[in-house]
Amino acid sequence: MLAPLLFVGLSVVLCFVPLFNLLAFEFALAFTVPAMVLGGVIGLGLDPFFDRRTLARALLRGALPQALALVPITLNMARLRNCNPLEGLFFFILLPTTTLAVSLAWGAVSRRLSTRFGGRIFGVLVLCTFARSAVDFWLGPTVDFFHPFVGYYPGSLYDEVIPISSRLVVSRLEDLAFAFGALAILRGGARLRVLTTVSVGLVYVAASQQDLHRTTDSVAESLGGQTRTANLILIHPKDLSPARLTDLETELEFRHAELTVFFGRAPAEPITVWLYQDAAQKKRLMGAAHVRIAKPWQRAVHIHAPQIGDGVLAHELAHAFSAEVSNAPHHLSLWSSLLPNMGLIEGLAVAAAWDEGLLDAHAWTRALRELDLDTPMETLLDPFGFLGVNARAAYTQCGSFVRYVHDEVGLDAMERLYREGRLEPEDPALSGWRAHVDALPQDALALAVARVRFDRPAIFGRTCAHEIAALRDRAEQAVSRGDSGGSVVEWERVLGHVPEDLDARLSLMDALRSDGQTERAVALANAIIAEPRAGTVRSARARELLADVAALRGDANAIAEARSTFDALLKESFDRAAMRRLAVKRFAVGAGAYGDHLLAALTERGPKPDDGRDELQIAVGLVPVHPVSLYLGARALIRAGDCGTAVPRLQAAADALPHPSLTLEAHRLVAMCAFDDRAYTVAATAFLALSSRVDLNLQRGERDGLEVWGRRARFFAQHHHGPGN
Question: At the N or C end, where does the chain have fewer CB atoms within 10 A?
């Protein structure tokens, strides 16, 4: 009698808890433990010699409270939008409903084994399963787990797409097979026992083929390759080419050397770097898809699709370095000696990697404070406060603070702060950091970019977080394969759930343009510009589309309108890629047939990824020696892998291009070509010379990035074993 009240009460409470207030994965997950307890109690209460009808009635008795729990959350749909309730219902069936059946069967097994100690047997069984998952997480590579009583825990909070996968279905079938198989073996005759054992064995084999029984050895065997460097152990896909592997080894050793300088010492043990081909392989083998993972207590990091120059390598290695700072066995910064202090854990990694794009973390934090989007550091250093804030903003502010302590107060102070996991409100480092950040100059354009970058809710505050993330993922996949029509459909589905999402509206606008639906794209662009919430950056994208359309009309008034808009957008832009694109468009407007073909190449994006290249070839052929032609032609050659032909063209064009951002990119590409051709000393000289150019108006983050590339090239020149040094 009590169970229905408890289940309904929990459902009512969850209706007011962010992320749990929809019939979706988290709501279902929250009911697995109550379902486990209820199923176990019912199973333990069965007569050891029950018949099938008794078992069916017991299952129905357990299902009733769960069915009642669906009533409040379903009624809650009148108050909150639920984007995919059918998927949520399937999650509810796969998680708590299946758990109820599994627990009931194991409860009955425990009762059959001992009528006196059945409850204790069941309790020990449950504890053993949780202990096994904890041990796997602590000692192995996995961060998610399939569990007989919980069903599935996805691991990383920041992997927002949680689908109903075949692996989850097979895992739940395996849980049912083991539970009811054990019951059948205890109750049946010899023939039934043999059939049950064979059936359970087949299900186990099927589960193993889905990589549900992962261990350190099995994951390493699936990847197939292992190498050792001076400071690292790399476990990697066996089909990685020797040249690619050597590049990654050198890059990781470079990052290790840079972090050794920041931390003042190298780790006492080698760091294990698990490398995966892509996000899908990483998800299958260790549980995290798009999120890179570190386990400091193991001195291990897990990275997919690694690239030379990818800042995430330094970020994750910094987590492994932090193991030297904190205490064993966890090697983490703990809040009140209990919970991981995510503000300091992630802040230290950001401070050490120091790779936040155009601006550094100090400058972004200055913008956050100016926009009143910052969060008090005391809140960010509270585990629950950190999770309630936009992740990018939280990482940035914490990284800025930890970097300030490292640079201005000292390495010892930073290590003490990290080790103790707490900060007193009156700590002078806090007031010093605020004063340091507030004294930085502020760019109005940076403020506009910061508002778009940081002004969005944490996952707990988003509508249908998982469903929307899945739709966005499908839309972006459609774009990547050149399916503009499919992208339109997916973005329209997103906006069907969150019509107020301006970023989704902009993405739909671009998809419509690519799909040839120009009139709809123009109408949407005008609507976005008229939206008061759009702001400078989002409005600029819509205005650029309108200018593209006007420029392609070709009449004098339209050309004048487009030229004026491109001029204005160039002055308002803070993003280098946007500046380059706008500068070429501004140059092309009114430049006759040559300009028309350039504009067509830049704006008439069709359903195939290579659409526009023919127009570019025609334009370059019309005026082959113009600096813009040389620059654009060289970029096309680099994409085709022909740096040798591209570099002389870039060198001839670089300082004659019509905008500093084009000049910067031309010189950067020359340096990158030298690096890719393994002329590392030449590349180092080029990167460092470029970082000192005062005429290019480099932002602090850009200058830092070029200096890092210069140091990287020098390191490769000394340590890389390839040709060309």
Answer: N
